[in-house]
Structures are given as C-alpha cells and as structure tokens.
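REQUEST ID: PR-0412
SUBMITTED BY: lab tech R.K.
PRIORITY: routine
TASK: structure prediction, single protein chain
INPUT:
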Amino acid sequence: MSVQMSWLLRQHQLRLSHRGGPERSTAPITFAQATELTDPSPWLSGGELILTTGLGFEADGPALGTYVRTLAAAGVACLGFGVGLSHSSIPRHILDTAEDVGLPVVEVPYDTPFAAVIRAVMKRIAEQEYEQVLRAASVQTRITRAALHGGVDAIVRELAVATSTSVALIGNRTESFHPAAAADLVERARDVARSIRPSSSPATVSVSEPGCTVTLHSVAISGGASSFLAIRTAGPVTGVEQILLGHAVSLVTLELEKPTRLRAEQSRLNTLALGLLLDGHLPSPDGSALPSYLVDAADDDSRIRVAVVRGPSERIVEAIDAECRARARPTFARKTDTGVAVLLRGSDDSDVVARLLDSLPKSVCVGLSSSHHITETPDALKQASLACAAAGTSDRIVEFTGSMLLASEPVQESLRAMAAVTIAVLAEYDRTHSADLVGSLRAFLEANGHWETAAAHLSVHRHTLRNRITRCEELLAVDLTSARVRAELLLSLLAATT
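STATUS: complete
OUTPUT:
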C-alpha cells in the first residue's frame, strides 16, 4: 500500500507545496518518517517520505547536496523540508541536487506539524489496506460460490480472474490451469515442486525471475502426495493475493478430500458388515441374497479368505486401507483384541497379503485361512486365528494347512516343557556368554541341516556356525545328525517362541 506525491499535495489542510525534483513523480510513498540525522540511510528500506528541518546542517553548503544524494541512493520516495526553524527556506543545494538525482522535494510550512503529515500518510495507507481486505472478502465469496458449482476448475479460474494472474493446480489426482495461455505454468510449477525436498515440506515456495514470480502453495491431501496451487505474478505476491491464494487452497483441499471422506464412511460401513459376517449373521445360509455392499468383498465365485493380523491394530488398519485405496479396492477390516481381522477375496494369495502389509514392521505376522464361500466366513476366521496362533517370531505369513499341530494347546504345553530343559539351557548360555546359540540352532534346523544356507541366513562363516552347533550338542548332550532330534528341537523352538 502506498501514496504518491500528487496525493500528498492534494491534502490542502497540510498546505504542502512542490519545490524541487520531478513535478509528477509516481514513486510510491510507503512510509513517512521524521529525522534530523545527517545520514539516516542505514535505517531506511526505500519508499519513505523523509521529513526534516535541516537541523544538522548549519548553512547552504555542499553537505546538503551529499545528503540528498544519500537519500536518493537509499530509495527515498520524497523529501519534505520544514521551513521556518533551522532554515527560512529550502537551501539551494538541496533543490539543485534534487533536480539532478530526480528526488521530489516538498515544502512543509512552519505551522504544519510533521506529525500531521505522517498521520495523513499512514491513515491513507491503512485505508487502502482495509479496502484490500474488503475486496479480498468479496472475492473469497465469489471463489467459494464458484467451488460449489464448478469444483476445482472453477476455483482455479476464479482465482486467476480475481487476481489478473495465471493460476495452475498440479498433483497426482488432478491438473487445471487458467487462462488458456497458462498451460506452460503447469510444467514450470512441476519443476519447482520437484526441487522441494520432502523432508522440508514448506507450505509456500516462491521462485523469482526477471518480471515474473511463481509461487507454489502446498495442498495437503490425506493418503497421498501433496498437490500444489501455483500462481504467476509480475512481482512478489501481494498481501491480498496471499489471502486469496490461501482461501483457494482451503477450498481445493476440501474438494479433493471429498473422495477420501466418502471412502472413510464406506470403510466404516464395511467394518460393520464384516462384523456381521464374522458373527454368522450375513448373508443368508444359501448365499442367494448377497448384499450389494458385499459383492466387492468376494471374488467372482463369491469366495473369500480371512486374514488375522497380529500387531498394533490402529497402524495395521491404516496401512491396509492405504494399500487397498492405492489398488482401488474396498477395505474390510475389523479390530480385535490382538490385532485386525481382514476380509480378502478368495483369489487373493499370500503375495497379495504381503503387499498389503508392505509398510508394516516385519514383526507383524498374519494367519491366512483357505478359500471359503462367503457364507462360511466364521469358519475362515477360525482357520486364520489358528494359523496366526501357530506363527513363530520370524514368520510373516502362515497359511492354514489343516492340522496346525502347534495350534493345539496340549501339544504346545508338552513342547514348552521340552523347551524348558533344552532351549532354555541355550538361552542361558547366550545370556551369560553373549553368544547366539539359539538363533544359530534355529537357522540350522530350519535350513534342514544345510550349513551353507544357514550360515548365509545368519551372515556368518560356515565354520563359525559349525562351532556353534557343536557347542549346542555338547550343552544338550544330543546328536544333531539325528532327524528325530532335529525335529524335536525345532518343535521346541517353535513352541518356546509362540
């Protein structure tokens, strides 16, 4: 916001008059300041109306010319010289130098307080700022109305028209720009966006070029990479443009979040439906009346699988929903006491499940049922729960195989008793000697006694592994060349870690 010298001279109550420099100066006055310093330039930023009585100058000497040149070099917009105190008139050196450097000079009469001039300038600038706020509010209403009827494209168009600039929206979900000549802004905005480091994630980024500034404001969308609303202006973005840009970003965010909100509501309904399925209430026993909202839950043959995921339920649901959303498929998940039950299609295999869990820690394990008709969902849940219970600490996905020996509690008790006199001995040795006999034995047994495979799994040399296994045999007084001994120890290991 600013005023010009012509406006200042029209304020007749101030009785100012032009005395030197350009008569029709268009230099914007952005601030008014009174000072008697002979060199105020260190405290100036440009655009000021400097008011002085020349108190620091005793006569009409060359120092006054140097003073004017210093003000012009600092970007001062206008010099107001008060007469009748230190000087009865404006010194000739000031007027001559002002003509040379193009600095307008106005005379301030003795009975016009500098405070009155400052008040007039700052009041007018404040009025302009208020007018801009009113204009921004009016434009905000138009942009909001446009959003209701035309969506993202209408928001972009209205913002461009209201600010007389070029505007573009870039992102994975949508791309829009206005006016038609702003097509090149899309690629320029993408170049700027690619230069932004993800870790910094600034809300606004501006890149200035000669006669042009491109400003990007991030549009954060749930479950996806940020979009950006870009505006191209001739100079730095003004305050009003910033307000309107921020308002447009809010509207674009709401518009782009609609699918996310709808999906969240659909997922909530899917969770309720899954609960009824798992409890045996849906669908009808013969499966002839499958509800429409369950059609996408099953494959083409109305078959499903159930996965029971053991781990932090909130994080599991978020990860599974994100993967399902990326694959354009609905999410059927229900939290349980120990994790999450997930409804899958009958055609989904363990690879599909692995992809759904890709962003979760490796410690999260899954029990996966066999394929069932959707009417048999409770049976599928039992299978998945047994498979999950049988998972060891290193197991990622355990599919139900039918017998699931380790899922039997009596068997588990027998194996844990055996582990207490075998695996516990090795664990105690590991604790006191900082060894890894338990891990080495497990790798050896799971590799079926294959030294190279087990050593590679442990990232140790095979001779190191041999020494560890020999030590295990000594501590347990067993012969690991016996298949029966290896089987018993492996089962004990599995039981000890479940």
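NOTES: The CA atoms of residues 93 and 110 lie 20 Å apart.
REVIEWED BY: pending
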